[in-house]
Amino acid sequence: MVLVTGAGSGIGRATAHLFADEGARVAVTDLDAASADDVAAEVTAAGGDARAWALDVTDAAAVQGVVADVAAWGGGLDVLVNNAGASVGHPIDHDDFEEAWDFGIDLLLTSLTRTIRAALPHLRQAAAGRIVNISSTEGVGGSANIAAYTAAKHGVIGLTRSLAVELGESGITVNAVCPGPIHTGITSAIPEEMKAKFARRTVPVRRYGEPEEIAHGILHLALPASSYITGHALLVDGGMTIKNN
User: Fold this and answer.
1) Which superfamily does 2-235 belong to?
2) CA 227 to centroid of chain Cα atoms
3) Cβ atoms within 10 Å of 154's Cβ, excluding its own
4) H helix intervals, 106-210
5) Are 140 and 93 spatial neighbours (Cβ–Cβ below 8 Å)?
6) 228 is known as an active-site residue
């Protein structure tokens, strides 16, 4: 039984499809109820087993309620994929910086603690509990004008490492995936020629990645065979972070 947050589009949608293709029952959750419904319907039409829930991960009561409903529907919970997020940021001297900072840290970092805390009793009952948190290459580097996003994604990796140590004795692994430039809704507003130019200059494989390529990294970390991998931040970025120039 797999719960994916932010599964109404992009990486979350691809992850829901991939886990269902592998035979998992999937809880598709998203802030946009219609998008969650659409993805669950797609998975079901393809022969998978999925159900949709509307979920605002910044709402602690909603998180508790949805996780409980998901576990009741699925007969427990084996895998939690913390994917929900958005692009958040302003320059440090912008009038709205503090508002953007508070929102970004809550959405991109604090919300993970909410879902993990709600899921933990169920994950402890699983044969091989798995938590996969979505960070970013911003979690190992930095860019101007998006301090909230960058700080939160660094925090996701720190949270992942701390919980890997804390939860190891429970048999639960905790890992992170750090996507590089990916074709998703967040990057859809960037003109294609600018994406191509950026990829040629900075990504060794010279292209943007696809959501399905991130989903395969998530699946790998959730497999029973990956039981000795924990506290790891898996870069799925076409080699971008290792390129010197």
Assistant:
1) NAD(P)-binding Rossmann-like Domain (3.40.50.720)
2) 19
3) 18
4) 111-125, 147-167, 192-202
5) no
6) no
Q: Residues 53, 101, 149, 208: which is the catalytic one?
A: 149
Question: What are the distances in angstroms from CA 93 to CA 103, 146, 147, 150, 151?
Answer: 17, 12, 11, 16, 16
Residue 52 CA: distances (Å) to CA of 35, 49, 66, 97, 236 = 9, 11, 10, 34, 27
Q: Say which residues have a Cβ less than 8 Å from residue 169's Cβ, sequence separation at least 6.
A: none
Q: Provide the 3-class DSSP secondary structure of residue 228.
A: coil
pTM of the model: 0.95
Could you give the CA distance from residue 118 to residue 17 in angstroms, rounded to a whole number?
Answer: 24
Question: How many Å separate Cα 220 from the centre of its chain?
Answer: 14
User: What tokens were used for 215?
Assistant: 């989903």
Task: Indicate the burial class of 191 (C-beta count within 10 angstroms; 0-12, 13-18, 19 or more).
Answer: exposed
Distances in Å between the Cα of 188 and the Cα atoms of 21, 183, 184, 237 are 26, 7, 6, 17
Average pLDDT, 10 consecutive residues per value, the chain (245 residues) = 97 98 98 98 98 98 98 98 92 95 97 98 97 96 94 98 98 97 78 82 92 98 96 96 84
